[in-house]
Amino acid sequence: MNFDRDHTIFIDGAWQAGQGAEKLEVLDPSTGSSIARMATASGEQVGRAAEAAARAFADWSRLPGQIRADYLRGFARGLERRAEALAVLQMANSGKPRLEASIDLGDAIATFDYYADLLEQLQQSPNSETSLGEGSHKGRVRQEPIGPAGLIVPWNFPLVTSAWKIAPALAAGCTVVLKPSEATPLVELCYADLADEIGLPPGVLNIVTGATPVGKAMTDALPLRKISFTGSNAAGAQVMASAARRGIPVALELGGKSAIIVTEDADLDLAVECVITGIFYNAGQVCSATSRLLVHEAIESRLLEALMERVRSMAVASPLEDRCDMGPITTPAQFRKVENYFAVARSEDCDCLTGGHRLDGPGQFVAPTIYRHVDVGSRIWLEEIFGPVLATRRFRSDAEAIALANASDYGLAGSIVAADPERAGRLADEMVAGHVWVNTPQIVYPQSAWGGFKSSGIGRELGPWGLASYQGVKHITSAP
Ligand code: NAD
What is the pLDDT of residues 406-417, one digit of tens each? Predict the structure, then answer.
């Protein structure tokens, strides 16, 4: 497969050749071979993309919501038409098993449809009244689009993270400049193809490809009035610092080290399903991966045995193989990082039940890994590995489980598996996390909220909160 493209920059409704000094070498992580060489945007092109977004903003933000909703549905239907091609691209560039590639696609489609629906509902009442006290002035509130927005995304769910930003931003009336990750830049180019196909007004959606320098040029681009960033805490801090210099708002979706709590009365099969998918889906490269298992001591050995049995039956392979339960690590840098954590675990004498090593042969494959009785001070317990590495501990009481779960700098997500619904609900309430699943594998509805407490970020995506992220509140006070 070869996906070489020179025209990878989409500005003001037209494709352009990238003029950046850097070229991107896009890899297939299952083989390590190059599948595309791509041009990147120059700083000047990023500036032009931001200006195009600013020019388009005046008309786009004033369009009736129904028309913007129709465009959003146009994106959804266009994604459906390209389903097979996009699945193949994601399998090739991200190493996602086919099922996971199609789940990503379904998620992106549902997000565009959801914001189209929400926009139609809101059209019926664009204003809301505020009560200022009897006989006094009249108050009215309008939600206004915040302005042209810069969207910066990572490589683990490229189609989805972009949809989670593009759809609410366009729904709110914002225009956007999107920067895909340098590791997986191919799949998101479809959003520009679709913009062209559905006749989206020029400048409403612009795409610039490239690595950190392109991201930095975006955060410095004066016409952009908001930066929505998803990625690592280190880069998020830099984005926030740039935004702080200009005094513009940021939304940050950052890392996690989420816990899954399994109580002694839990359905064992369900617990196995939730633990396995919570850490091995997308080869563990999931911000909300439940990478810390807390299991009640009464069922610890039974659960660990059942988990081992599942791991033994997993096919770790290229998504092109007949059977693939878990694909490779997507980027070479992430592959090195996971391998380094295996070395850390060895140096810390972690009790490795299974895995703890890379797989022989070509490609960036590692074994699904479980460490048991991991010390609370261990780096394996505390740090986000972003790979298929599970750290486990046992607990004796719910209070101990919650204390262990919440003893983290992160607060993105969490899971509870418990038979007693009241107890499960109480544990969910006490977990410090932006999204908690109870007795279900991780599933994210566009209607729900996404984002974290503590160092996991600032702001929320999805649902009405995702729309609000691209809006500013205007209060109008009128004479009585
Ligand atoms: P990363 O921070 O290296 O890169 C993310 C994006 O930011 C890329 O497009 C990159 O080019 C760009 N970038 C890097 N430095 C920048 C800078 N100084 N200024 C502007 N842009 C910059 O992250 P990654 O390795 O691509 O993704 C993995 C991380 O993303 C993990 O920590 C994971 O937890 C996090 N993540 C979080 C969520 C969430 O919803 N909370 C979702 C997915 C991934």
Answer: 999 999 999 999
